[in-house]
Structure formats: structure tokens, C-alpha cells
Amino acid sequence: MDNQDILNELNQNSAFKAVTLSADLGASVLQPAFRNEFIRNATRDLSIFSEARRVIMTSNVENIDRTGFGERVMKKTAEDAEVGTTKPEFAQEKLIADEYNAGAGITDKALRRNVERERYAQTLVQMLGQKFGEDWETFAVGADKTKYAAGNLLKTSDGWIKKCTKKIYGKGTGREFDGTKEVTEMLNTMLKTYPKNYLKQRTNLRFWLDSEYFNKYIDEVGERPTIAGDEAVSKYVARPFKGVPVVEAPVLGDEDITNATNGWGPTAMLQDPNNMVYGIFQDVTLEPERKPALRTTNYYITVEVDQGYENPNVGVCAFPETTK
Description:
Blueprint: H1 3-10, E1 19-22, E2 27-30, H2 32-43, E3 53-57, E4 61-68, E5 89-96, E6 98-107, H3 108-113, H4 120-142, H5 160-163, E7 167-171, H6 183-193, E8 206-209, H7 211-222, H8 227-234, E9 246-248, H9 255-258, E10 268-271, E11 276-291, E12 296-309, E13 316-323
Parallel strand pairs: 3-11, 7-13, 8-9
Antiparallel strand pairs: 1-2, 2-11, 4-5, 6-12, 8-10, 10-13, 11-12
Helix pairs in contact: 2-4, 7-8
């Protein structure tokens, strides 16, 4: 019995029923249905990631093209005069997928003594996928090649905060709002900064706040002697602000992102989730590695991803405790 037979026997009722074994790749390539399930597991309960738009990339470089008119096309024309023309403007954003992976392993002894026994292999893979998803969201939101210390995952790419072109600050002489005042002042300034042409469908937008600032917003609304104030405190319900839903995003409280020295500091985002894209190139793979001498089975997840905007000029990031 070779190593693959041992793996098949060990996992015949576990996670590998969700994969297609490929001798050529030496890995387990997730079938499309299970690949989607992995992505759902990886984005479950993750506020920003779960609403962003997923793109299945056809190559490791995916172009996102957009076109439109940057000036008025309507002109008054004199009699017998030639009608003037206006050229459309073209722009392009790119997703460039890089490879990322995660690994976890379990010994045969631990597997035998675990109450789930063979089923624990599936539990292990699910836990790995969920934790991978948390790291993936932090990476997609906060990554910046110019910040963070060497060796930090977030230093390997640029995320949605970095790629957002409209940033406003709450400290310093050049501040756009006073970060020491109410959260609603920051939200108001974010709305004023957001491109007016894209504010018509406000219910499609999101104010994303970290847990601390979300709690401050709840307290501010709760002070009002209204039904909305009562609900805010008693049910921890955040009413929309001027038509835009206010959503708690725990990822914005990640210690790397909030680090004032090597990160962004506390951050709030006003975005249209449909404008935020993350791309996945090729298959998500789950590769088992059997080490008989160590009586251990390791599992490795591999995925090629990138993130960006369809239009990086549509959106606002606010930094209430950071100097411009």
C-alpha cells in the first residue's frame, strides 16, 4: 500500500470526498462546487469580504476596463455649424494574482484520540479555511507594500485602504474633520467627500466602522430620546446615517491595521461593495502530505488572489486619529 492509498483509507469518510485527486498536480483540486463552498467558508461572518464582488480570473492578470465622459457632451450649436464631438475617456485597473497558502497537520496519535476520529480531518480543513478567510480579509483590506515590518503578510501587496484615492484625516493642521468630536461629524465629512454622482443609491453603500467606533456611534444615537435611540442601546442596532447603512467591521480593528506606527491607525470606510473586487486565479487546491516516518498528515491550501477597485476614485477612507 503506497502513501496515496494510506491517505485514501485514512480520509475515505472525511474532507477528501470534497476534492478530486489529481496525480498530475500532486494536489487535490477543489471541484467548482466545493471551491465555491471553500470561498463561502473563508468569507463567512466577515463583514467587508462577504459583500465585496468576487471575480474568477482567467489569467493571473485580469484587466478591469471602464469608460465614460469626463466633460459635458451637450452643446449649443449655431445654424449651419458643425456639431462638435467629445471623446470618451478610458481607464483600466488590474488585478495581478500572487500565490498564498496555509498549512496545518495532525498526528495519527492525536487523530485516534480525538473524539471525532477520522472526521476530525474534515474539521481541521474547515477550521483552516475559516482562519485563512480571516487572514485573507485582513490582507485584502489593510495590505500596503510601504508599511509594516518585513515578514508581515500585509507587506506583500496593496489592499483596499491603500488603493482608495480619497483619504481624509482627523488630526493635524490639514485635517478635513475633527477626529475628537462625534462619529457623525466624520461620517458627514465622508459623505461630502464621496463623489456626488454615485450617491443616488445610498442603500447600496456601506459605512464600515471598527468595533470601537461602531460602539461610539451606537452611544451617540442612543442619547437621542427617540425610538431609534432606545433600539440603538437596548438591541445594539445601528440605524443608517443619512440613508447609508452603518456596519460593524471587526477586521478594521485588526492590530496590524490599527497600529499607528506601522499601520493605518483607526480607519473608517465609505464604499460601494460592488465596486470592490477580489480576484481568484485558477483552482483553490487542497494538498495532503503524508509523512509515514512521523506518522503525521499535513494539509496545504493554495490560492492565487489579488484585490482592487473597479473605480478607485469612488470611495472614502477616513482616519480620525491620524495626521494628514
